[in-house]
Amino acid sequence: QITLKESGPTLVKPTETLTLTCTFSGFSLSSSEVAVGWIRQPPGKALEWLALIYWDGTGRYSPSLKNRLTITKDTAKNQLVLIMTDMDPVDTATYYCAHGLELWAFDYWGPGTPVTVSS
Amino acid sequence: DIQMTQSPSTLSASVGDRVTITCRASQSISDWLAWYQQKPGKAPKLLIYRASTLQSGVPSRFSGSGSGTEFTLTISSLQPDDFATYYCQQYNSYSTFGQGTRVEIK
């Protein structure tokens, strides 16, 4: 049974760096052809893909945010981390991590973690 | 970047109706398209991947079709549990989601 859960601060100040952790079970991120992504959703708005990491540690980033994002994994802890720098109020959203079916179609999602950017 | 445009933005329908949602890509994405259902306060649920493959456990009243730039999600007979927002997602070149289609009770 695959499960994922996001964790991190619920409130960050403008210009600060956000660090989110996704803790998962039921699969290994060191197994071939496995990927996990991050997606966010501002209140009342659409989903936005942010980043994805492959089993070999390769990261892929949204072109519009690539300069602000870093995704890493800790296979031993069954965790991955998303770092987003220079946070702005427009980054206020619920942030989800999700397991990739055929790498990029997301079949298992965490419940999401809300992040508010405000001074 | 590949842009995904869904239509309509909102759809009013009754239980038992046949419902079709369209998703258009700004360039060809072959069949690298997924559909999701999302209810308020919940994470999205994968319905269809590879444009037409039904995800395990999803009712057969949901179906997907299309390739290239135009895709459709069809619900053959709308059920009370189907009132939700639906998103398409391309994954031919990284990933992009559509803006969503809200299916509401008529």
Helix content of chain B: under 10%
| Main sheet characteristics of chain B | 7 strands, mixed
What is the overall shape of chain B?
globular
Radius of gyration of chain B: 13 Å
Q: What's the oligomerization state?
A: heterodimer
Structural class designation of chain B: mainly beta
Which spans of chain A of ≥5 residues are poorly predicted at pLDDT below 50? Answer: none
Strand content of chain A: over 45%
SSE string of chain A: EEEEEEEEEEE
Parts with pLDDT < 50 across at least 5 consecutive residues of chain B: none
What do the pLDDT scores of chain B average to? Answer: 97
N-to-C CA distance of chain A: 40 Å
Number of continuous helical runs of chain B: 0
SSE layout and pairing:
The complex is a heterodimer of chains A (119) and B (106).
Chain A: E1 3-7, E2 11-12, E3 18-25, E4 35-41, E5 48-54, E6 59-61, E7 69-74, E8 79-84, E9 93-101, E10 105-109, E11 113-117
Parallel strand pairs in A: 2-11
Antiparallel strand pairs in A: 1-3, 3-8, 4-5, 4-9, 5-6, 7-8, 9-10, 9-11
Chain B: E1 4-7, E2 10-13, E3 19-25, E4 33-38, E5 45-49, E6 53-54, E7 62-67, E8 70-75, E9 85-90, E10 96-97, E11 101-105
Your description of this structure?
The complex is a heterodimer of chains A (about 120) and B (about 110). Chain A is mainly β and about 120 residues long. The mean pLDDT of chain A is about 95. By secondary structure, chain B is mainly beta. In chain B, strands 2, 4, 5, 6, 9, 10 and 11 form a seven-stranded mixed beta sheet that branches. A four-stranded antiparallel beta sheet of chain B has the order 1-3-8-7, with no helix packed on it. In chain B, strand 9 and strand 10 form a beta hairpin. Chain B is globular and about 35 Å long. In chain B, about 35% of the residues are buried. At the A-B interface, strand 5, strand 9 and strand 10 of A face strand 4, strand 5 and strand 10 of B.
